[in-house]
Amino acid sequence: MPKKVYIETYGCQMNLGDTEIVRSVLVDAGYEMTDSAESADYILMNTCSVRDNAERKILEKLTHFKRFKKKNRNLRVGLLGCMAKRMRETIFEQRDIVDLVVGPDEYRRLPEIFAIAEGGEKGIAVRLITAETYDDIEPLRTDGRSAWIAIMRGCNNFCSYCIVPYTRGRERSRPADSLVKEIEKLARDGYREVTMLGQNVNSYRDETTGADFADLLARTAEAVPDMWIRYVTSHPRDMSDRLIETMARFGNICKYIHLPVQSGSDRVLSMMNRGYTAEHYLGRIKKIREAMPNVALSTDIIAGFPGETLDDHRRTLEILEQVRYDGAYMFRYSPREGTKAWDMPDDVPEEEKIRRLNEIIDLQQKISKEINKGETGRLHKVLVEGESKRSKEDSQGRSDTNKLVIFPNPDGAIKVGEFVKVRIQRSTAATLFGEIVK
Ligand code: SAH
Ligand code: SF4
Ligand code: F3S
Question: Does the bond joining 195 to the residue before it have cis omega, within 30 degrees of 0?
Fold first, then answer.
Protein backbone atom coordinates (compact mmCIF):
# COMPACT_ATOMS: atom_id res chain seq x y z
CA MET A 1 0.00 0.00 0.00
CA PRO A 2 1.40 3.40 -0.89
CA LYS A 3 1.82 5.75 2.03
CA LYS A 4 -0.68 8.61 2.16
CA VAL A 5 0.25 12.28 2.35
CA TYR A 6 -2.00 15.12 3.47
CA ILE A 7 -0.90 18.70 2.85
CA GLU A 8 -2.24 22.06 4.05
CA THR A 9 -1.15 25.29 2.41
CA TYR A 10 -0.82 28.73 4.03
CA GLY A 11 0.47 32.10 2.86
CA CYS A 12 0.74 33.53 -0.62
CA GLN A 13 0.05 32.11 -4.06
CA MET A 14 3.71 31.08 -4.36
CA ASN A 15 2.96 28.50 -1.70
CA LEU A 16 -0.11 27.25 -3.56
CA GLY A 17 2.13 26.78 -6.60
CA ASP A 18 4.82 25.09 -4.52
CA THR A 19 2.31 22.65 -3.05
CA GLU A 20 1.66 21.43 -6.60
CA ILE A 21 5.42 20.87 -7.03
CA VAL A 22 5.50 18.96 -3.73
CA ARG A 23 2.59 16.77 -4.86
CA SER A 24 4.33 16.06 -8.14
CA VAL A 25 7.60 15.05 -6.44
CA LEU A 26 5.81 12.79 -3.93
CA VAL A 27 3.48 11.07 -6.38
CA ASP A 28 6.47 10.36 -8.66
CA ALA A 29 8.19 8.75 -5.69
CA GLY A 30 5.22 6.41 -5.12
CA TYR A 31 3.29 8.28 -2.43
CA GLU A 32 -0.44 8.92 -2.64
CA MET A 33 -2.14 12.25 -1.82
CA THR A 34 -5.18 12.30 0.48
CA ASP A 35 -7.74 14.91 1.59
CA SER A 36 -8.08 13.39 5.03
CA ALA A 37 -5.57 14.29 7.74
CA GLU A 38 -6.92 11.54 9.95
CA SER A 39 -6.04 8.68 7.64
CA ALA A 40 -2.71 10.10 6.49
CA ASP A 41 0.78 8.67 7.12
CA TYR A 42 2.25 12.13 6.58
CA ILE A 43 0.80 15.51 7.49
CA LEU A 44 2.62 18.36 5.79
CA MET A 45 2.12 22.07 6.45
CA ASN A 46 3.33 24.44 3.74
CA THR A 47 3.82 27.53 5.87
CA CYS A 48 4.10 31.33 5.84
CA SER A 49 6.28 33.61 7.99
CA VAL A 50 5.21 36.99 6.70
CA ARG A 51 3.51 38.15 9.91
CA ASP A 52 3.57 36.90 13.48
CA ASN A 53 -0.11 35.89 13.48
CA ALA A 54 0.44 33.74 10.37
CA GLU A 55 3.09 31.77 12.23
CA ARG A 56 1.06 31.59 15.41
CA LYS A 57 -1.87 30.02 13.58
CA ILE A 58 0.37 27.29 12.20
CA LEU A 59 2.01 26.57 15.57
CA GLU A 60 -1.44 26.12 17.09
CA LYS A 61 -2.45 23.78 14.30
CA LEU A 62 0.64 21.67 14.95
CA THR A 63 -0.40 21.21 18.55
CA HIS A 64 -3.81 20.12 17.31
CA PHE A 65 -2.25 17.35 15.17
CA LYS A 66 -0.83 15.78 18.35
CA ARG A 67 -4.11 13.90 18.78
CA PHE A 68 -3.58 12.13 15.48
CA LYS A 69 -0.11 11.06 16.50
CA LYS A 70 -1.48 9.45 19.65
CA LYS A 71 -3.77 7.33 17.46
CA ASN A 72 -1.21 6.55 14.78
CA ARG A 73 2.34 6.17 16.07
CA ASN A 74 3.72 5.95 12.55
CA LEU A 75 2.33 9.35 11.60
CA ARG A 76 5.04 11.84 10.57
CA VAL A 77 4.47 15.59 10.65
CA GLY A 78 6.43 17.90 8.39
CA LEU A 79 6.93 21.65 8.17
CA LEU A 80 7.54 23.00 4.67
CA GLY A 81 7.79 26.52 3.24
CA CYS A 82 8.88 29.78 4.76
CA MET A 83 8.60 28.87 8.45
CA ALA A 84 10.67 25.78 7.80
CA LYS A 85 13.43 28.05 6.59
CA ARG A 86 13.02 30.61 9.34
CA MET A 87 12.63 28.25 12.31
CA ARG A 88 14.95 25.46 11.23
CA GLU A 89 17.00 25.61 14.42
CA THR A 90 14.24 26.10 16.96
CA ILE A 91 11.23 24.21 15.69
CA PHE A 92 12.22 20.73 16.91
CA GLU A 93 12.66 22.10 20.41
CA GLN A 94 9.51 24.21 20.33
CA ARG A 95 7.24 21.54 18.86
CA ASP A 96 8.34 17.95 19.43
CA ILE A 97 5.56 16.85 17.12
CA VAL A 98 7.55 17.97 14.05
CA ASP A 99 9.54 15.16 12.39
CA LEU A 100 10.80 16.85 9.26
CA VAL A 101 11.58 20.35 8.10
CA VAL A 102 12.02 21.16 4.41
CA GLY A 103 12.61 24.65 3.03
CA PRO A 104 11.16 26.05 -0.22
CA ASP A 105 14.21 25.19 -2.35
CA GLU A 106 14.58 21.58 -1.19
CA TYR A 107 11.38 19.88 -2.31
CA ARG A 108 13.26 17.54 -4.68
CA ARG A 109 14.74 15.95 -1.57
CA LEU A 110 11.38 15.18 0.07
CA PRO A 111 11.51 11.42 -0.66
CA GLU A 112 15.00 11.25 0.85
CA ILE A 113 13.91 13.22 3.94
CA PHE A 114 10.80 11.02 4.27
CA ALA A 115 13.09 7.96 4.31
CA ILE A 116 15.13 9.50 7.14
CA ALA A 117 11.96 10.26 9.11
CA GLU A 118 10.69 6.70 8.53
CA GLY A 119 13.94 5.42 10.01
CA GLY A 120 12.99 7.24 13.21
CA GLU A 121 15.29 10.24 12.92
CA LYS A 122 14.37 13.87 12.48
CA GLY A 123 14.88 14.95 8.86
CA ILE A 124 15.92 18.42 7.87
CA ALA A 125 16.70 20.17 4.57
CA VAL A 126 16.64 23.94 4.53
CA ARG A 127 19.45 25.30 2.35
CA LEU A 128 18.55 28.11 0.00
CA ILE A 129 19.60 26.83 -3.41
CA THR A 130 20.25 29.89 -5.52
CA ALA A 131 19.57 28.14 -8.82
CA GLU A 132 16.46 26.09 -7.99
CA THR A 133 13.46 26.89 -10.19
CA TYR A 134 11.89 23.38 -10.44
CA ASP A 135 11.90 24.03 -14.17
CA ASP A 136 11.72 20.34 -15.10
CA ILE A 137 9.02 19.39 -12.57
CA GLU A 138 5.51 19.62 -13.92
CA PRO A 139 3.28 20.72 -11.02
CA LEU A 140 0.51 18.25 -10.13
CA ARG A 141 -2.51 20.47 -10.75
CA THR A 142 -5.98 19.35 -9.76
CA ASP A 143 -8.22 22.22 -10.81
CA GLY A 144 -8.52 21.75 -14.58
CA ARG A 145 -9.60 25.37 -15.08
CA SER A 146 -7.17 27.86 -13.51
CA ALA A 147 -3.45 27.20 -13.16
CA TRP A 148 -0.61 28.84 -11.27
CA ILE A 149 2.82 28.96 -12.80
CA ALA A 150 5.85 30.31 -10.92
CA ILE A 151 7.92 32.23 -13.47
CA MET A 152 10.52 33.37 -10.94
CA ARG A 153 11.42 32.65 -7.32
CA GLY A 154 12.97 34.69 -4.53
CA CYS A 155 13.29 38.43 -4.01
CA ASN A 156 16.23 40.86 -4.03
CA ASN A 157 14.32 43.92 -2.89
CA PHE A 158 14.83 43.68 0.86
CA CYS A 159 11.96 45.93 1.88
CA SER A 160 12.99 46.64 5.44
CA TYR A 161 9.95 44.97 7.07
CA CYS A 162 9.90 41.84 4.93
CA ILE A 163 11.06 38.31 5.76
CA VAL A 164 10.56 36.94 2.23
CA PRO A 165 14.12 37.57 0.90
CA TYR A 166 15.40 35.56 3.89
CA THR A 167 13.01 32.64 3.54
CA ARG A 168 12.99 32.49 -0.26
CA GLY A 169 16.50 33.58 -1.19
CA ARG A 170 17.66 35.46 -4.27
CA GLU A 171 15.76 36.08 -7.47
CA ARG A 172 15.98 33.56 -10.30
CA SER A 173 13.74 32.99 -13.33
CA ARG A 174 12.59 30.02 -15.35
CA PRO A 175 13.49 30.08 -19.07
CA ALA A 176 10.77 31.59 -21.27
CA ASP A 177 10.78 28.65 -23.71
CA SER A 178 9.85 26.13 -21.07
CA LEU A 179 7.24 28.46 -19.52
CA VAL A 180 5.51 29.04 -22.86
CA LYS A 181 5.61 25.30 -23.59
CA GLU A 182 4.00 24.51 -20.24
CA ILE A 183 1.29 27.14 -20.77
CA GLU A 184 0.55 25.85 -24.28
CA LYS A 185 0.09 22.41 -22.78
CA LEU A 186 -2.30 23.87 -20.19
CA ALA A 187 -4.34 25.34 -23.04
CA ARG A 188 -4.43 21.95 -24.79
CA ASP A 189 -5.52 20.31 -21.55
CA GLY A 190 -8.52 22.66 -21.37
CA TYR A 191 -7.27 25.24 -18.85
CA ARG A 192 -8.94 28.63 -19.33
CA GLU A 193 -6.73 30.82 -17.17
CA VAL A 194 -3.12 30.98 -16.03
CA THR A 195 -1.65 33.17 -13.29
CA MET A 196 2.07 33.89 -13.50
CA LEU A 197 3.60 34.02 -10.04
CA GLY A 198 6.61 35.68 -8.51
CA GLN A 199 7.42 37.91 -5.54
CA ASN A 200 8.42 40.56 -8.03
CA VAL A 201 7.47 39.49 -11.54
CA ASN A 202 8.88 42.66 -13.13
CA SER A 203 12.34 41.35 -12.28
CA TYR A 204 11.75 38.35 -14.54
CA ARG A 205 14.67 37.80 -16.89
CA ASP A 206 15.45 34.90 -19.19
CA GLU A 207 19.18 34.30 -18.70
CA THR A 208 19.84 33.09 -22.24
CA THR A 209 17.69 35.38 -24.39
CA GLY A 210 17.52 38.41 -22.09
CA ALA A 211 13.70 38.45 -22.44
CA ASP A 212 12.05 40.50 -19.69
CA PHE A 213 8.59 40.24 -18.17
CA ALA A 214 6.89 42.33 -20.87
CA ASP A 215 8.45 40.05 -23.53
CA LEU A 216 7.25 36.94 -21.70
CA LEU A 217 3.72 38.32 -21.34
CA ALA A 218 3.53 39.21 -25.03
CA ARG A 219 4.87 35.82 -26.12
CA THR A 220 2.41 33.99 -23.88
CA ALA A 221 -0.56 36.13 -24.93
CA GLU A 222 0.17 35.29 -28.57
CA ALA A 223 0.75 31.60 -27.86
CA VAL A 224 -2.56 31.03 -26.02
CA PRO A 225 -5.04 33.59 -27.40
CA ASP A 226 -8.08 31.88 -25.86
CA MET A 227 -6.67 31.75 -22.36
CA TRP A 228 -6.82 34.48 -19.74
CA ILE A 229 -3.43 35.56 -18.42
CA ARG A 230 -2.93 37.12 -14.98
CA TYR A 231 0.11 37.83 -12.84
CA VAL A 232 1.11 38.75 -9.26
CA THR A 233 3.00 40.65 -7.89
CA SER A 234 4.60 43.60 -9.60
CA HIS A 235 6.68 46.27 -7.90
CA PRO A 236 5.73 49.96 -8.43
CA ARG A 237 9.36 50.93 -9.03
CA ASP A 238 9.65 48.52 -11.97
CA MET A 239 6.22 49.04 -13.56
CA SER A 240 7.63 50.05 -16.93
CA ASP A 241 5.80 51.81 -19.76
CA ARG A 242 6.57 48.81 -21.95
CA LEU A 243 4.87 46.46 -19.49
CA ILE A 244 1.80 48.70 -19.32
CA GLU A 245 1.63 48.97 -23.11
CA THR A 246 1.96 45.19 -23.48
CA MET A 247 -0.94 44.64 -21.08
CA ALA A 248 -3.06 47.12 -22.98
CA ARG A 249 -2.24 45.54 -26.35
CA PHE A 250 -3.59 42.04 -25.66
CA GLY A 251 -7.25 41.33 -24.94
CA ASN A 252 -6.43 38.09 -23.14
CA ILE A 253 -4.15 39.74 -20.56
CA CYS A 254 -6.56 40.47 -17.72
CA LYS A 255 -7.08 44.13 -16.88
CA TYR A 256 -6.27 43.82 -13.23
CA ILE A 257 -3.09 44.94 -11.46
CA HIS A 258 -2.08 44.34 -7.87
CA LEU A 259 0.40 47.12 -7.19
CA PRO A 260 1.29 47.29 -3.47
CA VAL A 261 1.92 50.86 -2.30
CA GLN A 262 2.44 50.02 1.44
CA SER A 263 2.30 53.69 2.55
CA GLY A 264 1.46 57.12 1.17
CA SER A 265 4.28 58.88 3.02
CA ASP A 266 7.65 59.35 1.29
CA ARG A 267 9.38 59.33 4.67
CA VAL A 268 7.92 55.92 5.54
CA LEU A 269 8.43 54.58 1.99
CA SER A 270 12.09 55.46 2.29
CA MET A 271 12.39 53.78 5.72
CA MET A 272 10.68 50.77 4.16
CA ASN A 273 13.32 50.74 1.40
CA ARG A 274 10.62 50.65 -1.26
CA GLY A 275 12.61 52.65 -3.83
CA TYR A 276 9.83 55.00 -4.97
CA THR A 277 7.95 58.10 -3.82
CA ALA A 278 4.20 58.68 -3.66
CA GLU A 279 4.57 60.95 -6.69
CA HIS A 280 6.28 58.24 -8.74
CA TYR A 281 3.60 55.77 -7.71
CA LEU A 282 0.76 58.11 -8.70
CA GLY A 283 2.52 58.71 -12.04
CA ARG A 284 2.47 54.97 -12.73
CA ILE A 285 -1.25 54.78 -11.87
CA LYS A 286 -1.93 57.66 -14.26
CA LYS A 287 -0.05 55.92 -17.06
CA ILE A 288 -1.87 52.63 -16.35
CA ARG A 289 -5.29 54.28 -16.45
CA GLU A 290 -4.49 56.19 -19.64
CA ALA A 291 -3.54 52.93 -21.32
CA MET A 292 -6.38 50.85 -19.80
CA PRO A 293 -9.31 53.02 -18.71
CA ASN A 294 -11.31 50.13 -17.22
CA VAL A 295 -8.43 48.52 -15.34
CA ALA A 296 -9.06 47.34 -11.77
CA LEU A 297 -6.39 48.01 -9.16
CA SER A 298 -5.59 46.61 -5.76
CA THR A 299 -2.86 47.24 -3.23
CA ASP A 300 -1.24 46.24 0.06
CA ILE A 301 -1.00 48.64 2.99
CA ILE A 302 0.99 48.39 6.23
CA ALA A 303 -0.29 50.46 9.17
CA GLY A 304 1.94 51.49 12.06
CA PHE A 305 5.42 51.01 10.60
CA PRO A 306 8.20 52.12 13.05
CA GLY A 307 8.24 55.90 13.32
CA GLU A 308 4.96 56.36 11.46
CA THR A 309 3.43 59.67 12.62
CA LEU A 310 -0.18 60.80 12.35
CA ASP A 311 0.88 62.91 9.39
CA ASP A 312 2.37 59.83 7.64
CA HIS A 313 -0.82 57.92 8.35
CA ARG A 314 -2.90 60.76 6.89
CA ARG A 315 -0.85 60.51 3.68
CA THR A 316 -1.72 56.82 3.42
CA LEU A 317 -5.42 57.69 3.68
CA GLU A 318 -4.86 60.37 1.06
CA ILE A 319 -3.24 58.04 -1.43
CA LEU A 320 -6.15 55.61 -1.05
CA GLU A 321 -8.48 58.47 -1.93
CA GLN A 322 -6.32 59.61 -4.83
CA VAL A 323 -5.94 56.19 -6.44
CA ARG A 324 -9.36 54.80 -5.52
CA TYR A 325 -8.41 51.12 -5.52
CA ASP A 326 -11.00 48.47 -6.24
CA GLY A 327 -9.68 46.54 -3.25
CA ALA A 328 -6.82 46.35 -0.76
CA TYR A 329 -5.08 43.92 1.58
CA MET A 330 -4.43 45.83 4.78
CA PHE A 331 -2.15 44.78 7.63
CA ARG A 332 -0.72 46.19 10.81
CA TYR A 333 3.04 46.14 10.99
CA SER A 334 4.47 42.97 12.50
CA PRO A 335 8.20 43.02 13.37
CA ARG A 336 10.15 40.11 11.84
CA GLU A 337 13.42 39.10 13.42
CA GLY A 338 16.42 39.44 11.10
CA THR A 339 14.93 42.19 8.92
CA LYS A 340 16.25 45.79 8.91
CA ALA A 341 13.07 47.12 10.51
CA TRP A 342 13.52 44.68 13.42
CA ASP A 343 16.25 47.03 14.65
CA MET A 344 13.98 50.10 14.45
CA PRO A 345 11.94 50.83 17.58
CA ASP A 346 8.43 49.39 17.10
CA ASP A 347 7.07 52.59 18.60
CA VAL A 348 3.47 52.80 17.41
CA PRO A 349 1.50 51.22 20.27
CA GLU A 350 -0.58 48.16 19.35
CA GLU A 351 -3.92 49.91 20.02
CA GLU A 352 -2.85 52.80 17.83
CA LYS A 353 -1.80 50.44 15.02
CA ILE A 354 -5.23 48.84 15.21
CA ARG A 355 -6.95 52.24 15.22
CA ARG A 356 -5.03 53.37 12.13
CA LEU A 357 -5.64 50.06 10.41
CA ASN A 358 -9.37 50.30 11.08
CA GLU A 359 -9.45 53.80 9.69
CA ILE A 360 -7.74 52.54 6.53
CA ILE A 361 -10.12 49.57 6.25
CA ASP A 362 -13.21 51.78 6.71
CA LEU A 363 -12.10 54.21 4.04
CA GLN A 364 -11.23 51.44 1.59
CA GLN A 365 -14.57 49.70 2.22
CA LYS A 366 -16.37 52.93 1.40
CA ILE A 367 -14.37 53.38 -1.81
CA SER A 368 -14.82 49.74 -2.92
CA LYS A 369 -18.56 50.06 -2.34
CA GLU A 370 -18.75 53.26 -4.40
CA ILE A 371 -16.70 51.81 -7.25
CA ASN A 372 -18.80 48.64 -7.35
CA LYS A 373 -21.99 50.70 -7.38
CA GLY A 374 -20.72 52.20 -10.63
CA GLU A 375 -20.62 48.67 -12.08
CA THR A 376 -24.43 48.52 -12.26
CA GLY A 377 -25.51 48.01 -15.85
CA ARG A 378 -22.04 46.97 -17.04
CA LEU A 379 -21.39 43.78 -18.94
CA HIS A 380 -18.59 41.48 -17.76
CA LYS A 381 -17.06 38.36 -19.27
CA VAL A 382 -16.84 35.92 -16.37
CA LEU A 383 -14.99 32.64 -15.97
CA VAL A 384 -17.31 30.30 -14.03
CA GLU A 385 -15.64 28.85 -10.93
CA GLY A 386 -18.45 26.91 -9.31
CA GLU A 387 -21.47 27.09 -7.05
CA SER A 388 -21.95 30.30 -5.10
CA LYS A 389 -21.26 29.89 -1.40
CA ARG A 390 -24.60 31.54 -0.61
CA SER A 391 -26.99 29.48 -2.69
CA LYS A 392 -27.04 26.33 -4.81
CA GLU A 393 -29.16 28.11 -7.43
CA ASP A 394 -26.35 30.58 -8.07
CA SER A 395 -22.92 30.24 -9.58
CA GLN A 396 -19.87 32.41 -9.11
CA GLY A 397 -16.86 33.38 -11.11
CA ARG A 398 -14.32 36.14 -11.70
CA SER A 399 -14.40 38.96 -14.18
CA ASP A 400 -11.26 39.79 -16.12
CA THR A 401 -10.91 42.65 -13.61
CA ASN A 402 -10.75 39.96 -10.88
CA LYS A 403 -14.10 40.81 -9.27
CA LEU A 404 -16.21 38.10 -7.72
CA VAL A 405 -19.46 37.90 -9.74
CA ILE A 406 -22.54 35.94 -8.61
CA PHE A 407 -25.40 35.08 -10.98
CA PRO A 408 -28.38 32.69 -11.10
CA ASN A 409 -27.58 29.45 -12.89
CA PRO A 410 -30.63 27.22 -12.43
CA ASP A 411 -29.97 23.49 -12.85
CA GLY A 412 -26.27 24.28 -13.28
CA ALA A 413 -26.84 24.80 -17.01
CA ILE A 414 -23.60 26.70 -17.33
CA LYS A 415 -20.65 24.54 -16.36
CA VAL A 416 -17.50 25.33 -14.42
CA GLY A 417 -14.75 26.52 -16.74
CA GLU A 418 -17.07 28.22 -19.22
CA PHE A 419 -16.92 31.91 -20.05
CA VAL A 420 -20.27 33.74 -19.77
CA LYS A 421 -21.44 37.32 -20.18
CA VAL A 422 -23.05 38.77 -17.07
CA ARG A 423 -24.93 42.07 -16.79
CA ILE A 424 -24.36 43.57 -13.30
CA GLN A 425 -27.50 44.55 -11.37
CA ARG A 426 -26.29 45.29 -7.86
CA SER A 427 -23.16 45.04 -5.69
CA THR A 428 -21.48 45.15 -2.30
CA ALA A 429 -17.92 46.25 -1.48
CA ALA A 430 -16.65 42.76 -2.32
CA THR A 431 -19.13 41.22 -4.77
CA LEU A 432 -21.05 41.96 -7.96
CA PHE A 433 -24.45 40.37 -8.62
CA GLY A 434 -25.93 40.03 -12.11
CA GLU A 435 -27.67 37.97 -14.74
CA ILE A 436 -26.35 35.97 -17.67
CA VAL A 437 -26.82 37.65 -21.02
CA LYS A 438 -26.97 35.34 -24.03
N1 SAH B 1 6.17 40.23 -3.00
C2 SAH B 1 4.92 40.75 -2.77
C3 SAH B 1 4.24 40.27 -1.51
C4 SAH B 1 4.98 40.23 -0.26
S5 SAH B 1 4.14 39.77 1.18
C6 SAH B 1 5.06 42.23 -2.84
O7 SAH B 1 6.13 42.75 -2.73
O8 SAH B 1 4.07 42.86 -3.03
C9 SAH B 1 2.54 40.50 0.99
C10 SAH B 1 2.30 41.72 1.80
O11 SAH B 1 2.43 41.48 3.17
C12 SAH B 1 3.25 42.87 1.54
O13 SAH B 1 2.94 43.58 0.38
C14 SAH B 1 3.07 43.71 2.78
O15 SAH B 1 2.01 44.63 2.65
C16 SAH B 1 2.71 42.68 3.83
N17 SAH B 1 3.80 42.49 4.78
C18 SAH B 1 5.04 41.99 4.53
N19 SAH B 1 5.79 41.99 5.65
C20 SAH B 1 5.01 42.50 6.64
C21 SAH B 1 5.23 42.78 8.03
N22 SAH B 1 6.39 42.54 8.61
N23 SAH B 1 4.20 43.31 8.73
C24 SAH B 1 3.00 43.57 8.13
N25 SAH B 1 2.76 43.33 6.85
C26 SAH B 1 3.75 42.81 6.09
FE1 SF4 C 1 8.96 41.48 0.48
FE2 SF4 C 1 9.50 43.73 -0.73
FE3 SF4 C 1 10.29 41.45 -1.83
FE4 SF4 C 1 7.71 42.04 -1.75
S5 SF4 C 1 9.27 43.17 -2.87
S6 SF4 C 1 8.64 40.10 -1.21
S7 SF4 C 1 7.49 43.14 0.17
S8 SF4 C 1 11.04 42.31 0.09
FE1 F3S D 1 4.40 33.94 3.35
FE2 F3S D 1 6.55 32.92 2.32
FE3 F3S D 1 4.61 33.75 0.75
S4 F3S D 1 6.47 34.26 4.05
S5 F3S D 1 3.74 35.42 1.92
S6 F3S D 1 4.50 32.10 2.17
S7 F3S D 1 6.77 33.82 0.34
Answer: no
Q: Is the CB of 165 under 6 A from ligand 2?
A: yes
Contact 424, 418 (CB under 8 A): no
On whether the CB atoms of residues 148 and 20 are closer than 8 A, the answer is yes
- Angle, in degrees to the nearest 10, between helices 278-291 and 310-323: 10
Q: In what order do the strands lie in the sheet with 296-303?
A: 256-258, 296-303, 327-332
Q: Which residue type occupies 416?
A: V
* pLDDT of residue 379 exceeding 90: yes
Interatomic CA distance for residues 148 and 153, integer angstroms = 13
- Ligand 2, atom 4, lies closest to the CA of 199
Is the predicted pLDDT of residue 92 greater than 90, yes or no? no
Q: How far apart are CA 386 and CA 412, in angstroms?
A: 9
Residue nearest to atom 19 of ligand 1 (CA): 162
The runs of H, that is alpha helices, within 324-404 are: 350-373
The pLDDT value recorded for residue 79 is 96
Evaluate if residue 123 carries a pLDDT over 90: no
Q: For 194-205, write each residue's pLDDT tens digit.
A: 999 999 999 999
**pLDDT tens digits along 93-119:** 888 899 999 999 999 999 999 999 999
Per the CB < 8 A criterion, the answer to whether 6 and 40 are in contact is yes
The number of CA neighbours under 13 Å toward the Cβ of 54 is 21
The alpha carbon dihedral of 394, 397, 400, 401 has a sign of positive
**pLDDT (0 to 100) of residue 1:** 87
Ligand 3: does its nearest atom lie under 6 Å from the Cβ of 11? yes
